[in-house]
Amino acid sequence: MNRPYHLWLIPLLPLAGFLINGLLGKRLPKFLVTTVALLAPLAAFGVVLNAAFLTLTPMELRSWNGPGPIPRLVSVPYLESFGTWINIGALHIDFSFVLDQLSLVMLLVVTGVGFLIHIYSVGYMKEDAGYARYFSYLNLFLFFMTTLVLAGNALVMFVGWEGVGLASYLLIGFWFSKTSAADAGKKAFIVNRIGDVGFLIGMFLLLANFGTLTFSEIAAKLAANPGWTGGVLTAIALCLLLGATGKSAQLPLYIWLPDAMEGPTPVSALIHAATMVTAGVYMIARNHVLFDHSPFALNTVAIIGAATALFAATIALVQTDIKRVLAYSTISQLGYMFLGCGVAAYSAAVFHLMTHAFFKALLFLAAGSVIHGLSGQQDLRKMGGLRKKMPITFWTMTMGVIAIAGIPPFAGFFSKDAILYSAFQQGSLGKVLYFVGLVTAALTAFYMFRLWYLTFTGESRDPHSHPHESPWSMLGPLVILAVLSIGGGWIGIDRFGSFLSAVTGPTIDPATAPGGKSLDIGLSVVAVAVALIGWFVAHLFYGKKTQRPAELAAALPAGYKLLANKYYVDEFYGATVIKPLMATSTYLLGWFVDKAILGGAAWLLGGIATFAGALLQRWQSGNLRSYAAWLAAGAAAVLLFVVVPWSTVWPVSLDFVWKVAGH
Amino acid sequence: MSPFLSQEVPLSWYLLLSALLFTLGVVGFLIKRNLITVFMSIELMLNGVNLSFVTFAHQWHAVKGQIFVFFVMMVAAAEAAVGLAIIIAVFRARATLAVDRIDLMKL
Residues with Cβ < 8 Å from A180, sequence gap 6 or more? Predict the structure, then answer.
């Protein structure tokens, strides 16, 4: 029995939703727009679930049948090719989709969480004038994201990669009449372009050295040459890493993500927390054989990840905008995923990607619910006391906060623990990075509980606010995501890792490694202790109304200012990149090249023509007899030229001139 | 046939006459101010050329030259029709035929 997966349906259903709502949305009644917008991701999710069922069934059979060959319904990786896309000489690229364990996990997250956020958006965007436009963009995003995930080669992935960037740009700048939103959209787009240059160059290098962009062929070629390490592979891996840092908001290209919070909150949840920003992690996991052959690139990934995790977590400590805290937290958690990739624990990274998608989407949606309930208020300093007013939002967000803080048995604990454990195994560099990750875990617990205390406990700090609980279209997804945030990690890294091992290679299993189990438990205890310390400190600072935060800020004014201004990175980029670029564009390119050289040349040519015209115009006297005289004079001149034997008058033959001229 | 007539007129005489007619046409074209006279000068030039065509055709026993003359006459007839129509139209519009004053094309 070989039931096909119909992978093509997964991206095409959201595309249909995009086309219908994008072209006709304004004329359709609202409930029809909603139906189309929700049906598209739901149907896509259904196709993915079908695929998951087909893939997972043999695993069930294994436990039933005992030893012996396992009957498989459909074997993965399952390839669906839609014909040749590019065929020039040796270059041959198919438009193909591949379903394997890795893309299956990603698809479940993307379409599942995506569908929940679509439901939530119905409540959140109900009053917005651009309702249909919003949902068409959201469906467009799902189209490109599923294309990215399903891609069988790097070029198809790049199509999705650029497409999600476009959808991200459109949705960040959704309220484009607001200058800050339009600017944030441009910033995201431009910073991503820098990363995309890396991705492109990486692809060119792949083509030059492998002659193919198909992931499976690259892996096969590398498997045939196990001794091939470093050199050009490092170059390729670093180029791809640059692309990943752009999309996944890592150092040094993370700056666009905090600004991306200008978009509607469900967008921040879907694109800028749960799915799109994890594309970089997915891309590294997908190309992990390249990274495996380049220890230097792997170490770079790990260091960038750990550094970003710590860096973003420290900024999140003092942010006062609820969405910005979550944005920096997202950057920090993505840093964990990069750290996981960098220590070759790809399955742990993808595991964290999945749990993070659950709890971070939950946190963003809950924050959106808070903002919705407070009629647009995003400032933590003006919240407080919402526990009684918004009980369901409160409880679901609590689940998310505990999950991200890494306290068992919530989802975040398991995945973070898996990454930290893998880092600890990787020699002395790994131990340092493990320590950085541990500090980050404490900071994470601190700033998340700070947000939690400031939002929900105490008394309301804004006398004008009239908070109200959100409608069930918003609370429903919150509850589902809260359940996933609690139970999403129970599958365990060993089972998750063995499921992914066909794609990401074998993982270190704490249960089988010598002394692994006790080390694992020891590290877990440390991680939990650290998280609890973070919580405790947050409780001391924000649990009751105290002056402690203000006192600390006053005691360390320089440090506080540095953090509050986000290490002045935006200013630094402004001074070192943007200003020189602007100056070059304005003065060198604008004034010198454009105005002086090009404008001057055009002016000169035009001037010569005008001047010649002004002279020649006198010839056109309009007087018939003067024309006739010129005509006669011309005829006489021609006659003179033909009749007079010039070679005797001037003894240089025309042939001679012809030859001198080089013919 | 009388001996006088049997004596052929030399070729150069015809050509001289032809050149004379043509030059008269050119000079008339350049110096006359009346549009109709200018027009007639053009006809004179054409006929000067026609004469040399016929002369050479007779001299070289080539019929092509004579055919050319017919073409020129045909074109001249057409030109006369169109040209006279234009002249009448110009006269109606401007009440003058002095070429120096027909200068609307001048900037």
Answer: A262
